[in-house]
Amino acid sequence: MWSCGPLNGTGRGEDQLLCQHFHLVLSVFSLLYLVVGIPVGLGYNALLILVNLCDQSSMTMPDVYFVNMAVAGLVLSALAPAHLLGPTTSGWVLWGFSSEVHITLLVLFNVCSLVTMYSTALLCLDYYIERALPRTYMSSVYNTRHVCGFVWGGALLTSFSSLLFYICSHVAARIIECSRMQDAEATDAIMVFIGYLVPALAVLYALVLISRIRKEDTPLDQDAGRLDPSVHRLLVATVCTQFGLWTPHYLTLLGHTFLTSRGKPVDGYDLGILLFTKDLSRFLAFSSSSVMPLLYRYINRNFPGKLRQLIKKMHCGHQSCSMDHAGAQQVMA
């Protein structure tokens, strides 16, 4: 998946040998992800969406955010082969496509990254609201669905600005204003600020507030209407996983912006390191689409019961299954 070609001619034999070793190891991991990770991501994300949408009456606020992230995960899993094996990689290109298709794939990837990061940040904030004010219904399922709609709309608008930079790079000779815009640097700067810094600050602020709330035991903690205690473990695992897998991608964008802002061409050793880290960070970002539904499956205590009920309904077919319906409602309650 990765190539050591840019390091040729730099005179650093140790770096070239080390790059070849990393090239072999990371290529094996990439093949394993394409063979195993993508089917797991597609299957578990689709299962997460199907289980929750078929039993919408039992959905909670965190479930809505995880369904939102699962939709983004489905899109990421579908885009992974084109990105990891296409001309955007530094080596091992199995196929090519036009610049318009490349821009479309890049915009979809940016939209999914924004949806994933902001869903994580809003999940933290709404979890704090739910713990602090459980009976206000500010973080209800109804409101969360509308919030998720705004998240997708905002991600599309933000990525549209990036799309304009790429369009301007193709018509720079005709439009003077576009010729003054540096498409790659501006796009990377926008994505780092809006796609990473803003949600990271929101998550940090929410986690500080949640830690203060958890130190204070109140009678509300015994309220039957509160969220399940496993939600907190799922929240911490989600934040650590998402930011752990997406941080290298945004750091790579920041590094590319810094290198190009110096006004010197990026070539030789710096280019090899940049391409290597870019491909590695992209691989980690795509792997989040397979890891997140697995975390939801094994940490959320309600998901196995919902899955069994869905399988039972599928076995019943068009029959009513009325005898089990009342028992299922009692289990959910």
TrEMBL record:
Chief place of localization: membrane
Cellular component GO terms held in the UniProt record: plasma membrane
Domain G-protein coupled receptors family 1 profile: 44-296
Compartment annotation: Cell membrane
UniProt xrefs under Pfam families: 7tm_1 (PF00001)
Membrane topology of this protein: Multi-pass membrane protein
Matches recorded under SUPFAM superfamilies: Family A G protein-coupled receptor-like
A GO molecular function held by the record: G protein-coupled receptor activity
Membrane-crossing segments per the record: 31-53, 65-85, 105-129, 150-173, 193-213
Domain of life: Eukaryota
Keywords annotated in UniProt: Cell membrane, G-protein coupled receptor, Membrane, Receptor, Transducer, Transmembrane, Transmembrane helix
Gene3D superfamilies, A to Z: Rhodopsin 7-helix transmembrane proteins (1.20.1070.10)
Protein name, entry field: G-protein coupled receptors family 1 profile domain-containing protein
Organism: Diceros bicornis minor
